[in-house]
Amino acid sequence: MLRIALPNKGRLADQSRDLFAEAGLNVLANGERALVASLGDVFEALFVRAQDIPEFVADGAADAGVTGLDLIAESSRELVELTDLGFGQCRLAVAVREDASVCSVAEIPGGARVATVFPAVTSRFFAERLRADLEIVPMSGAAEVAPHLGIAEVIVDLVSTGSTLRVNGLREVETILTSTARLVTSPAVMAPNGNGEAGEKARALDDLVAALTSVLRARGQRYVMANVPRSKLEAIKTVLPGLNGPTVVDILNGGDQVAVHAVVPASAIYRKIAELKALGAQGILVTRIERLMP
Ligand code: AMP
Q: Domain coordinates of the chain in residue numbers?
């Protein structure tokens, strides 16, 4: 059995569950608040807070986990990143009051107080920038209110759309890191066995990564099928480049028509359909793809 720690609530929870379900690993929970649930195959999910996941994985309470790069960095634990899952995008940024005359970390007045839920990442960042003179005020949440309460002049906080900063009269000056959800494991799980081969768990995680990345890759792509005049195939090739050029299939009693199939970026579908129609395509069919393994 492989135990995968997944966020039990917050921004990453639903997207993690959806991704695993699309990869064929459905949560078979004994109720909404279950701590452990089977995911099918050799996998079981452990639902915990996203910020605790680096610890659980590093300590071996879970074999792998999904959590944000921001939380991985803050934990300061040694973990092995298996793949970037792409969702949960945000940045950890330094912000000051809108009316402050500061445009960079170098310009922050000496001795200023910096409120943050990310004290470890923040102090490493300031040390690299030779700003160890700034005082870090650790908080357990809502760092954006600290300047109003007079307990800090600067904050380091996660920013997604930027609206929380704006509402609180704050302005971003620098980005410390950009974050997305990652699948991580521990060095112990990845360590080769006595014969120098990958262990059973590492191989199962390899298969998991292949499954999850095939779903992520497929999400942005569509499968297009259309009947087109054989005489237009050269032009069709430029419209539907596909993975290796379109697949061309004979149609029984199709006359001069052949069927073309190709994988096309979802963002290009609108334009591709118009171009296919202009080339005389008929019976155009666009479908979603569940998995894509080039
Ligand atoms: P926004 O107003 O969209 O910039 O969101 C900022 C607020 O949402 C901050 O208070 C953050 O703590 C939180 N936040 C934004 N993105 C994330 C994320 N990916 N994971 C966790 N918290 C986030």
A: 2-86+181-218, 90-179, 221-288
